[in-house]
């Protein structure tokens, strides 16, 4: 047994291949390794170790994926008039704010997790927002962010040395210890070819709505928070010397063939 090292092993975990002698040791190893005990059907298998059983497993996995996709496409919510009206309303309201909002088909992760709403009484968007801190390999998801909130206020709970949560502050220490003037907020430009990825730099002193105007958004905004003093492979439009900064998203090249197949408005 790889947990207690006392008894003869009787069980082997399908997930991590650890040997255990009893139910107690099985539970201990799952807790210690955060293992769910479920076999990983997508785990890498080298060609030398690939057997007929692996081939059969892959075939069944693809069949399961096909059935799941078909079931999702047939789900009543997909064709619900209420769902279509909601998406149409969101896109229409975004268009009125000079924002091109695109929605993905049901089944895509971003479509499932998107919680963006529009409050007609307040005439305001409450955005689902994702913040990514690449220098610390951390990301956070925010829900119900009002569109009139400044980006600087949105980032305060994460990178402000005084107002940030102690746990978050420790994880994002490289950000909290840097001057606020070094912080840059970038957002990927969607309508570009895959071999020409560029980012727009946003203004932290302006509201989320002001920063999103004139942009293309797929489901919800994803903001990358980087530091000027650290090297980053993210090229900001207009700062690479090859393109003018005034090229807006609407003037960018059309979607690649892959994206065209993925992005539909309903």
TrEMBL record:
GO cellular component, one term: nucleus
Pfam families with a match to the protein in the record: BCD1, zf-HIT
Region feature Disordered, mapped onto this chain: 239-266
Keywords for the protein's UniProt record, in alphabetical order: Isopeptide bond, Metal-binding, Phosphoprotein, Ribosome biogenesis, Ubl conjugation, Zinc, Zinc-finger
Biased segments, Low complexity type: 242-258
InterPro entries, sorted: BCD1 (IPR051639), BCD1_alpha/beta (IPR057721), Znf_HIT (IPR007529)
Gene Ontology terms: biological process: box C/D snoRNP assembly; maturation of LSU-rRNA from tricistronic rRNA transcript (SSU-rRNA, 5.8S rRNA, LSU-rRNA); snoRNA localization
A GO molecular-function descriptor: zinc ion binding
Keyword Phosphoprotein: yes
The HIT-type domain, residue ranges: 1-35
Keyword Chaperone: no
Membership in a protein family: Belongs to the BCD1 family.
Assembly with partners or alone: Interacts with FBL, SNU13, NOP58, NUFIP1, RUVBL1, RUVBL2 and TAF9. Interacts (via HIT-type zinc finger) with the RUVBL1/RUVBL2 complex in the presence of ADP.
PANTHER family (UniProt xref): BOX C_D SNORNA PROTEIN 1 (PTHR13483:SF3), BOX C_D SNORNA PROTEIN 1-RELATED (PTHR13483)
Role played: Required for box C/D snoRNAs accumulation involved in snoRNA processing, snoRNA transport to the nucleolus and ribosome biogenesis.
Protein name in UniProt: Box C/D snoRNA protein 1
Species in which this protein is naturally found: Irena cyanogastra (Philippine fairy-bluebird)
UniProt gene name: Znhit6
């Amino acid at each position: 047994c790889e947990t207690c090292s006392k008894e003869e092993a009787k069980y082997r975990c399908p997930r991590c291949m650890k040997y255990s002698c009893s139910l107690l040791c099985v539970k201990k190893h799952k807790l210690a390794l955060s293992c769910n005990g479920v076999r990983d059907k997508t785990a890498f298998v080298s060609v030398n170790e690939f057997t007929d059983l692996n081939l059969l497993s892959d075939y069944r996995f693809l069949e399961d994926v096909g059935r799941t996709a078909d079931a999702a496409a047939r789900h009543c919510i997909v064709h619900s008039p209420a769902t279509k009206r909601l998406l149409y309303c969101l896109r229409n309201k975004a268009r009125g704010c000079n924002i091109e909002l695109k929605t993905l088909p049901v089944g895509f992760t971003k479509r499932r997790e998107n919680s963006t709403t529009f409050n007609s009484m307040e005439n305001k968007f409450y955005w689902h927002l994702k913040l990514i801190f690449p220098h610390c390999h951390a990301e956070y998801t925010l829900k119900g962010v009002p569109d009139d909130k400044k980006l600087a206020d949105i980032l305060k709970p994460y990178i402000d040395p005084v107002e940030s949560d102690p746990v978050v502050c420790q994880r994002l220490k490289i950000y909290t210890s840097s001057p606020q003037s070094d912080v840059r907020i970038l957002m990927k430009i969607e309508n570009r070819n895959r071999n020409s990825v560029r980012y727009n730099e946003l203004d932290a002193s302006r509201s989320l709505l002001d920063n999103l105007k004139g942009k293309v958004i797929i489901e919800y905004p994803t903001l990358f928070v980087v530091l000027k003093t650290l090297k980053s492979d993210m090229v900001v439009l207009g700062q690479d010397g090859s393109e003018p900064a005034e090229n807006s998203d609407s003037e960018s090249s059309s979607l690649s063939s892959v994206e065209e197949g993925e992005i539909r408005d309903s």
